[in-house]
Design goal:
Helices cover about 15% and strands about 30% of the residues. By secondary structure, it is α+β, with helices and mostly antiparallel strands.
């Protein structure tokens, strides 16, 4: 057989036994979110984001390292070293990873929203500002020109952050999981474990950086490889290598600052942090809630307001009249029914969260004809979730944008088009 394929939860691993190469592909299904006042995603923008993301990840991870083979198998004798290529495929179903991407407003930077990965949930949280490079500082005071997306990709293989003070690899500034661009053996331990199960009497080890760079060729679809996964013999199904025994046992803290829609603190609000184990806290007079002495192997987690009803009760006196929002930074959440969306948090960093009224929602609709051209100045009737109506016309790019509406499903009608269709 020319290909042996394994399908762990996090990727498809395809070993080309003739060419002596490893192809590792992840399937990502996107949810396209918008942070006002940014406008809704166009299809071209979605494609451009995926292409840029895939290119950045490929540029840092693919053909950058060599793996050595050790054993008595013919493959080992023919291919003493193999190269590895990583790829991200945009899919609409059956993903390895569910990825939400926030379209950020102008002026945002890679630290405006904290991108993160939750391996246990198969979820990735990104934003458009991540495409830009910047110069972060790690806990050792070192700075490097850095791109966030290849770093976040490293988290999909269960690699922790190495730029924090508690990391045993803080001094390794050039590491991709710190603030650098280089891949270490510890970063591909999951891949090595899968490869060790694929061929009898053959073990894969880290061989260091690749000597040469290879230009990217046509993409390979790992799901359509010419053969199925290898049958597992006792040798091929041996246990994976032991995990890195340098894992740190130090403790850390997580903190949020909860504000309303005009930037005033929200006190007396119970919140729950999902940071390893669940931990509860209550916001003080300055809107801050903190959990300390947290033991966790990840620098990221999430925070949820414990009771949407309690949040509405606290904020009801402020929300009796509409106020101009002042959302300069942080996450934006609103009570909807009995729930409030969770917010990503990062260790040793205060995350700002704005609670905004549930009635201050908005909707955008792009209107195109059969030739994919925008329909401009077209009258519309928008029926809101509470039965009320809004009227207007599409703008000069075929866009409908209506703000300050109640949350829930809406229905849009085009009276002039419907009138013409009945003639």
């Amino acid at each position: 057989m020319s290909h042996i394929v394994r399908k762990p939860d996090w990727a498809v691993v395809d070993l080309d036994t003739v060419g002596g190469r490893v192809f590792c592909q992840q399937r990502w299904q996107y949810e396209w979110l918008v942070v006002p006042p940014a406008r809704g995603w166009t299809y071209a923008e979605r494609r451009a984001f995926h292409h840029a993301l895939d290119s950045q990840v490929w540029g840092i991870w693919s053909n950058r390292i060599l793996l050595r083979t050790e054993g008595t198998n013919d493959f080992c004798r023919t291919h003493p070293t193999v190269e590895v290529e990583f790829d991200i495929r945009w899919v609409l179903s059956n993903p390895h990873w569910s990825v939400d991407v926030r379209k950020m407003p102008p002026g945002s930077n890679p630290t405006t929203f904290i991108s993160n990965v939750e391996p246990s949930k198969g979820q990735i949280h990104l934003d458009t500002a991540d495409l830009a490079s910047y110069r972060p500082q790690n806990a050792a005071g070192e700075r490097r020109t850095f791109r966030a997306l290849p770093h976040e990709f490293g988290h999909t293989m269960e690699n922790p952050d190495e730029y924090v003070a508690r990391s045993p690899h803080l001094v390794d500034t050039d590491s991709i999981m710190n603030i650098g661009r280089q891949i270490r053996e510890r970063h591909v331990r999951l891949l090595l474990a899968e490869l060790d199960r694929m061929i009898d009497h053959c073990r894969f080890t880290f061989g260091g950086p690749a000597v040469r760079r290879i230009s990217r060729g046509p993409k390979v679809d790992a799901r359509s490889s010419s053969s199925s996964a290898a049958s597992l013999s006792p040798a091929a199904s041996k246990s994976p290598p032991p995990p890195d025994d340098t894992a740190d046992d130090s403790r850390t803290w997580f903190e949020v600052k909860v504000l309303d829609e005009v930037g005033e603190p929200v006190a007396g609000l119970d919140v729950t942090f999902a940071v390893g184990a669940n931990a509860k806290a209550t916001t003080g007079g300055n809107g801050v809630a903190r959990v300390a002495d947290v033991k966790t192997s990840s620098s990221f987690g999430s925070m949820t307001v414990t009771s949407a009803a309690r949040a509405k009760e606290i904020l009801a006196p402020r929300w009796t009249t509409a106020r101009d929002q002042k959302l300069t930074e942080g996450a934006i959440v609103r009570p909807v029914g009995t729930s409030i969306d969770s917010v990503p948090v990062e260790a040793e960093k205060t995350i700002v969260v704005h609670l905004v009224p549930p009635t201050q929602d908005w909707i955008e609709i792009e209107v195109f004809d059969g030739d994919d051209k925008p329909i401009v100045n077209q009258p519309f009737l928008l029926v809101l979730s509470d039965g009320s109506e809004r009227r207007g016309s599409t703008d000069d790019v075929g866009l409908i944008r209506v703000t300050q509406i109640p949350s829930g499903p809406c229905k849009v009608n085009f009276p002039e088009i419907e009138k013409y269709a009945k003639q």
